[in-house]
Structure formats: C-alpha cells, structure tokens
Design goal:
Order of helices and strands: EHEHEHHHEHEHEH
Distance between the termini: 17 Å
Structural class: alpha/beta
Protein name: Fructose-2,6-bisphosphatase
Strand content: 5-15%
CATH class: Alpha Beta
Keywords: Hydrolase
Strand order of the largest sheet: 3-2-4-1-5-6
GO molecular function: fructose-2,6-bisphosphate 2-phosphatase activity
GO biological process, one term: regulation of pentose-phosphate shunt
InterPro entries: His_Pase_superF_clade-1, His_PPase_superfam, PG/BPGM_mutase_AS, Phosphoglycerate_Mutase
Amino acid sequence: MAPLILTMVRHGESKDNLTALWAGHRDAPLSTHGYSQALRLGEAFADVPITAIYASDLSRAHTTAKKVYEANKTTPKPPFTVSPLLREQFFGEAEGAPWDAGKYSSAHLPWEDHRAFRLAPNAESLNDVARRADLVLRHFVLPHVLATAQVPPSASHPEQHHIMLFAHGIWLSEMLFALKRAGDPRIRFVKSGGYQNTAWTRIEIELDDHSALHALPSSAVGGQAGQQPPQNGQYASPPAPSEAAPTPSPHSSPSRKSASSPSKSRSAVDDADRPPLPDEFHSLLPTLPAIPPRDPTLPPAWPHADDHSRPVPKLRHRVVVFGQADHLNGLKRTRGGVGSGAWDDKQRGLKEFFAGGGKTNGTAKQ
C-alpha cells in the first residue's frame, strides 16, 4: 500500500509581506516578485502528477495555486478546491495595524494560554486555526489517505495520490500539528519553523490502523457514486474568490465561529463577552463556504467527517522534504520598485520580463 503524498506550499510574496502590518485575512495581492515566484513554482511542478489541489481563498494563495495548476501537465487537470478553511490566522481588529511584538506578544504565557491567546478583539487563537486545520484533514486530506490505502499500486493503478495544499505560514504549522495529533493526540505543539514564500514541504501519510477501511463506501476510488465526471474529463481553473457568489451571512464564516468557540483558558474570550465585529472588518470575513460542493472525481468524503466526537483514524506521517525552495535560485527582484509593486493581471504579457531571467532547474519530481 502506497502512502498519500501531501505537498504543502506557502503563497508567493504578497504586498503585505513587504510591510510591518498584522495581515491574516487582509486580502493583499501578490507582489510582482511574488508572481514571479509563483511562475517559478509552476515550472518546478509542471511534470509532477497531481491528484488534487486545495487552496485558501485569499488571493495570495489562490493565485499561487493557479500558477501551478496552469503549468501542470497532468491529464485530465486535477480538481481544484478553494476553501476559507486554509486561510491564515485572523488577527481581528488588529488586521492592518502596525506589527508590534511587544504589544501583542504571548511568549510570556504558559503553553496552554499561549495557544488560546487572541491578540485583539474578534481575533483567532492558534487553537482556532488548529480547528480549521483539523477540518481540512477530515474533509480534504483523509479521503485521499483512505483511497490510497484501499488501492495498492498496480498495473491498473500505478500512480500514488499526490495532493497539494496552498496556504499560509501559521496555518501550515497548524496543519503539520494536526497530522502529528492524528498519530498521537497527547503530543504538544512545537513550531515547525519558518516557511519561505512558495517553499514547499512534502509529507508521506498512511493509515496506522487499517480497521478504518471497513467504513468506506465501495466507491472509495474514482469519484462519488451517482455523479458523473465532466465532459472530456477536464476542469477549468476556478475563478478568483472575489468573482464567486457570497454566502448569505458573513457571521456564519468558519473564522467567526472558530474564534468564538469556548475555551478553558483564561486568555480566551467567552462568546457572550465578544464585542460585535466593527463594520470596517466585515469585508475581511470569508464569503465562500468552508466545505464547498465535492468535485465528483475526488474520493468520497469520510463518512464520519462531521461527527467531531469521533477522532480521525490513527495516521503515520513522515516529512520527506521541508521548506524546499530551489526553484527560486537565481530569481532577483526587479529594480526600480517594480518587483515590490502589486501584481496586476494586465501585466501578464510582460511576465517573461518579470520572471527573473530564465527558467529554473529546481524541479519537484516525486
């Protein structure tokens, strides 16, 4: 039985990465240099088979994912799922404020309170981000683990499942923590280190307890029963989140819910005591559903994904590569302030000029 191959990617450099601001849900676009980074990443993954792509709806991660999707030669194109569950930590009313480590530091707190610390009203704690990472594991990653465990490589199924998550630095640390907890719920959080823009980490994941397979429907591989794949097996890259129809209420967003979840820590704020979110921050809340309609070519959902009293099956994982960024070798920021400017899609015809001089040799083959 082959393990699932998971590649986790941090987004390209954004405009907010160049400023000392609290920027979690602020939807800053890629800088021109960040767009060049995303192009390099796409070149590196062009010949790597991809089973599915999952991306944050924030444009810096979504655009990075689209550049890989567009460059990748997998046929048919892999399904592309966009979800706010992969968003960066929400800093609440500190969003857009100058970064001040002294004012907002939680380093002095005990471990449990550090995890529950919220730096501003309506902000998420690390525990809140961890809950979103858990949902990604249950709804997006685990179905591929189960499908891979059911079908060993053979002449008819030679390829492993390889999925990619495009997200943000803090969120990626919490996703790795979620995988560790799926192996040992008692494990304590240890920060996994910094993630360079467009750096990727590759992880092998497999079931530690194969008794979980008996709960799978018979259609565990090749899509959900009763649904037909699209004509010609092709999927178009989805529109940017700003082009998508909003859900009815911003207060039903996963970030809003998770940030108001009760906590035993004295650092947390009870839901009843939470002030209303000021109007100027409503635009930062997600407008897409946390769990979008499932692409019919994906493995079916884990039957117990919504039963949060039921832990995920015990998993084993192995970090094969961490923070790989060879695809950026030789890439230089365009002078004159152009590289630090926001990327405008109208600049697409000049992408060769901004790509930093030639193609990279840093491939990402499995």
